[in-house]
Amino acid sequence: MRYITFALAKGRLAKKSLELFEQIGITCEEMKDEKTRKLIFVNEELGYRFFLAKANDVPTYVEYGAADIGIVGKDTILEEGRALYEVYDLGIGKCRMCVCGPASARECLENHELIRVATKYPNIAKDYFYNKKHQTVEIIKLNGSIELAPIVGLSEVIVDIVETGATLRENGLEVLEEVCPLSARMVVNQVSMKMENERITGIINDLRKLLGGN
Ligand code: PRP
To answer: 214 CB less than 6 Å from ligand 1?
Structure first.
């Protein structure tokens, strides 16, 4: 039996997804040791391997088949645009991709002005403004603390993830438009889906039984 390899996005999602997998009998004791410097974890008995990667890299590992299965946010899937199958919505890590800014920026959006948009997600922002809204904007790529941009005058608005809305509120910003809802998804390599169909659909069905949904 060959290993089924899982790539998990490091951080909050990894912890929650491992808890879900545990409930369907997919366990990996080695991975619970928070002090370990190991990069790859194996459950020999069940034929599973797990590794943690930066969220943005998870779709890459899955597209190339270095991982059969990936657990990653819909935001990363949309941004990376890799060739893979998105097979299941785990319903964890729920949040929204939004256009945010000060209330005063509402008018710039309504009038389709040529504004600056700061974001960690340039592809999602481009798709939203160019293809959905047909508004020409200048997109500025940032790598974190995106909420700073409109405060210090780098951009009029941002495209970013909103979960509780606390970061926006504490910085005098608000949601101006919603781009799309987000949550963690299971993605599968296209070849693995054929070669290991039985084992992979078995995992999806077990998740469905546990969580429902599609
Ligand atoms: C994310 C996101 C927002 C914040 C939203 O940032 O970019 O800044 O969380 O959460 P809230 O609505 O509950 O306040 P993250 O913590 O991932 O860090 P980042 O600044 O590096 O993007």
So the answer is: no
